[in-house]
TrEMBL record:
Protein name per Swiss-Prot or TrEMBL: Sulfotransferase family protein
GO terms, molecular function: transferase activity
Enzyme Commission identifier(s): 2.8.2.-
Source species: Rhodanobacter ginsengisoli
Top enzyme category: transferase
Source taxonomy: Bacteria, Pseudomonadati, Pseudomonadota, Gammaproteobacteria, Lysobacterales
InterPro entries linked to this entry: P-loop_NTPase
Amino acid sequence: MRPVHFISGLPRSGSTLLAGLLRQNPRFQAGMSGPVGGLFNTLLGEMSGRNEFSVFISDEQRQRVLQGLFDSYYGADTRADVIFDTSRLWCTKLRALQTLFPQARVIACVRHVSWVVDSIERLVRQNAFQPSSIFNYLPGGTVYSRTEGLVGGDGMVGFAYNALKEAYFGADSANLMLLQYETLVSDPARALAAVYDFIGEPAAPHDFENVSFDDQGFDDRAGTPGLHAVRPRVAALERPTILPPDLFRRFENDAFWRDPELNPHQVRIV
């Protein structure tokens, strides 16, 4: 099977931009979050004890079925030599991924949680006439109730943040790298050089002035146009937050990856 790697981490932290840059390499296939992670979980569930026929399924068979998922989804019509699959779920599956794909690497995109929440709230306000799937298409609420929904354990941000901590502090972090949004947008050449080095692939040229990525159909259906929009030119943009000051300060100490003393397994941070 061709090499497969994984993009995970926090939402609104550069995963779509990273995919847009990687796919400039004709040897690579990368995209926004797709269905493979959900299919992976569904297969695990259907092969568990809740299925009366699970007594006939060994761990070796489970592994072959899960590997077959990738073979089938990224089939012969996928001409790329290297696959990058994106899902926030992958940070919770490091042990399984290491077993199935020992050479695979997981790149987790991270960003200060305050700015993640700010970015989502900005999208909500930009699309004032389209309730978003992020909030189950409910049109009510305030910035405070929306934030509570986002950062709860099952919320878009809370689940990804907890999954990231599980991966970062867990015993299976040898194949994990954290890529900071700030690095990706301010120094994309250094960020991509680190990615190439991490996955063991030869460097290739990239155009940071003309990045292309278009999944508008998905975003429109989700009631959140712009959710996966990527600006053509990679650049860091300074702007004030639109969050109330108390809400913004609530998460100012949550960037645990910035503290070297909180990196027991020496996870690579770019």
